[in-house]
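Hello again,

I reread your note about wanting to compare the complex against the isolated chains. To keep things tidy I'm splitting this into two emails, and this first one only covers the full assembly. Below are the input lines as submitted, including protein chains and any nucleic acid or small-molecule components. They are followed by the predicted structure of everything together. The single-chain runs will come separately.
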Amino acid sequence: MNEAANPGIVFWVLSAIILVTGFMVVSLKNIFHCAIALVLCLSGVAGIFVLLGAEFLAGAQVLIYVGAVAILMIFGVMLTSNLAGKKIIATTSNAMVAFFATVLFGGGTIVTIFMTDVWRYSSESLPIDNVMFIGKLLMTEFMLPFEVVSVLLLAAMIGAIVLARDEES
Amino acid sequence: MVQYLTLAAILFSIGLFGVITRRNTIGILMSLELMFNAANINLVTFNKFIAPETLTGQMFAIFVVVVAAAEATVGLAIVLLVYRNWRGISTDNFSILKW
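Full-complex prediction:
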């Protein structure tokens, strides 16, 4: 399968963006810059989703992650860092130990990926009306998880309000 | 396909590195988002190349996105609460949980 073997130039550009900004997220000293890098990284992942034929997921990624979660992070940074007073420094600790542990983990994963050569590639292709298919699945086969996850969102919303509420006022 | 899987593995490792080394709680939450995204890339990749006709991988990725959003909301609420009570969001502020 040609597409499985060679993903093309767009993939490499997006990968470079994702990995560089992803590394910035975990290494920069200013936590606000980390949040900006996180926005870029998540946008890159949305691009990867488009390459993989998941258009609905790419749209949801931009709306939920780039539009909501990253903005939430920036709000969190602004509310908790003393912007007027001392600048908040995002220190890192145990960097060497963590680096070796991470390289061990990532290297092991990548070696496993390349040693597995019995991927059962499917000869089928994605449904053309991808988004419509997802909508139908959400209303038929995945009806119960869909409803459960909406209750979860409601619970998370109420929980967040209860937790973050200022009780004195 | 291995390129996509390798990208996801490296992204997951970067997120893991962040979770281990960060002392800022919001930094830890951001690294967690990176790990969620790496898992999502894997799900969508397997969906496209192994079982494209059912779209199950994309459905799972959608649910992962929703759960990650709920996690970020509650996590940041807890961070705000900790900041209000201890005037700081370093993980050292959570040491009262240790006994």
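For quick reference: Chain A has a mean pLDDT of 83.

B.
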